[in-house]
Design brief:
The complex is a heterodimer of chains A (about 260) and B (about 240). Chain A contains 11 helices and no strands. Chain A has one domain. With about 260 residues, chain A is mostly helical. Chain A is globular and about 65 Å long. Chain A starts with a helix and ends with a helix. Helices cover about 40% and strands about 25% of the residues of chain B. In chain B, helix 3 packs parallel to helix 5 and helix 4 (about 105-120) runs antiparallel to helix 5. The interface of A and B includes residues 8, 104, 114, 261 and 262 of A.
Chain lengths: ~260, ~240
Amino acid sequence: MIRKEIKTYLKGFIIWTLIITLLYLGVAILYPHVITDDTMKSMDELMKVFSPEILKAFNMDMASMSSYYGWFKTEGFTFLLMIIGIYASILGSNILLVEESEKTIEYLGTLPMKRSKIITSKIIVSILFILLMILIISLTNYIALLSGGDFSHKEYLLLSITPVLIALPLYSINLFISTFMHKTKKTLGISLGLVFIFYIINILSDMTEKAKFLKYFTIYTLSDVRNVISKLRINPMMVLISIAITIAFIVGTYIRYNKKELV
Amino acid sequence: MIEIKNVTKKYGKKIAVDNVSFTVEDGEIFAFIGHNGAGKTTLIKAIVGIHDFDEGEILIDGKSIKDEPVACKKLMAFVPDNPETYEQMKAIDYIDFICDMYEVDEETRKKNIKKYSKLFGMEDKLNDTIDSYSHGMKQKIVLISALAHDPKILIMDEPFVGLDPKAVFEIKEVLNEMVKEGKIIFYSTHILDVAEKLCSKVAIIKNGKLVKSGSMKQIKGDKSLENVFMELEDKE
């Protein structure tokens, strides 16, 4: 079952990983040529236009964008969190539901295995692909950074881990939601919508003190980028919350799917 | 042996299968007949363990499909009416996947895949992806994967739809061979003349209720199965 799942989702995984990796490598190669003293000056002028709250919301106050690493820590990393979140969400909303949507469950359900085995195989493969994607992107980025000058290796290592903290809860939440549906038609909208809503809530929570309470309503709080950069440590509480959310929704998925009338 | 005991299946308020009981003994070919929407597929899906049911019991060789689903499913193979397979897979990988699920050893697997793919004229096409196949070819791949693990009970929902005459003939031969070995063939069909010639037992379902069940001779008497079926259909 695991082998079949790997074969089924390998192509999509390779395409996603390749595109993201090439994108970062492209920026890493082009960045030193694009960012000259003149462009930095104009960028600094541009930054003055934005309020400190806006800069804070996008982590643009945390580093200078004069180097590729500076760009990566600010815009590049925000993009990475979004894209990994989208991949994990789409995988979560599709991997179980596609069997029902394409009616292959009619045959799969007659094979001598418990439904739990179907869920377990799919979860193992999904988590493997999510972790592998983060690892490959982080490693290729690391190689690109090595050739581009000085950067904090510890900071980079910690930053590379944080996407896991948002990807796994997003995956499990979408997996759980999919157990309430029968067709994959609407899932793309739901999974993308969820990522964008969480992301926007995260931005809003960073903008003003009044909106700070919103950080309790978004998965993106778990990435905790500002603290990782400023304190050079991952808050263990964020790790625990991430694991707890992931486990809770996976357990919910097992309970729901084992009782679900598969059509 | 398959034992269906007072099985009822509801979809909300609608009763799809209403208190149905019958048994299928080893070495029998059993035809399950009924109009569209009569409840055939619903009951078949309950037997093979896809759908739960509200009341009654289904026993496969004395084991309950509800309590011991994996043990029951190991004895059975199912051929659905629509061959919904993994389209992007190569046929041989699909058959191998099914064989893995039934823990079929290498030797038996090779022997059976060769035997049935040759029989259905699919020997040279096993390395193609399933999405390149016609409906009939997909149906043949599902049949090969069902037969490759040598099931004790073969359950089929409209197995002849979309198949060429040669394939239909070959399937009938395979089914007769299996029955001689004491295996059970349970299938639903609308092709009544094939059922009449092939089957030793028959059950007719109408609006979820079993209206006739017994040996083929007993049910049809001097009439054809088609006549018996039409008379039952006309009765309100």
